[in-house]
Specification:
Blueprint (H helix, E strand, L loop, with lengths): L2 E7 L5 H15 L2 E7 L6 H5 L4 H11 L5 H6 L2 E7 L7 H8 L2 H5 L7 E8 L6 H15 L2 E2 L19 E3 L8 H25 L1
Length: 202
């Protein structure tokens, strides 16, 4: 029986998107089926228009990925939340989706699934670890079993953090090869843990 891994992310310029794709590839390498979903923008069109490239990137990503839904969460055996940092915290767009999961939480439909976090920051030491750890709180409240990246592969000594895959986007720079390697390792690890948890549930 296949293991299902959902990567629900928000990305504005494509950096978190690229990290999410690498994470999904890692999960697939471990035999999982994956879904990539982009949380939708919640600010007004005037704000989006004021930032070069935002409208175009959002249009491209919204065409490529559906918005995450509660049905996606129910389908998944593991969920990875991906976000850029916003002043050392989770983006409002991703948090709005997480905040919509109360109904599933109340029904116990998330409890026992594997959960993970991935993040991008614009600058080095720009809040990647604080944002990852901030995401651990709702993962715990919702009943996920948190699966960090951990120092399980030599790739983690070159990039990422033990808490989750990460990248520094700079001026719209894509993840480095080392960042991608860590994301793939993390994705594979989450898929393997989710498969074990699913087998234990019967």
């Amino acid at each position: 029986m296949a293991t299902n891994v959902l990567v629900a992310f928000y990305s504005r310029n494509g950096s978190t998107e690229a990290l999410a794709k690498a994470f999904a590839e890692g999960a697939q390498s471990a035999g999982a089926e994956t879904r990539l979903r982009r949380a939708r923008d919640i600010v007004g069109a005037d704000v989006i228009a004021g930032v070069p490239g935002w409208k175009e990137n959002a249009g491209r990503m919204d065409a490529a990925y559906g918005a995450p839904t509660t049905a996606d969460i129910e389908w998944a055996d593991a969920v990875a939340f991906g976000t850029p940092t916003r002043f050392g915290n989770v983006s409002a767009e991703l948090k709005a989706f997480i905040d919509s999961l109360g109904g599933l939480w109340f029904q116990g439909k998330i409890n026992g699934k594997a959960g993970a976090a991935i993040v991008s920051t614009q600058t080095l030491h720009g809040g990647n670890e604080t944002t990852l750890l901030t995401l651990y709180a709702p993962l715990a409240h919702l009943g996920f079993i948190i699966v960090p990246a951990g120092y399980v592969d030599p790739a983690l000594f070159k990039a990422g953090t033990p808490y989750g895959a990460s990248t520094v986007s700079g001026q719209n720079q894509p993840p480095t090869a080392d960042d991608v390697a860590v994301a793939k390792v993390h994705g594979a690890r989450v898929a393997k843990v989710a498969a074990a948890l699913k087998a234990a549930r019967g």
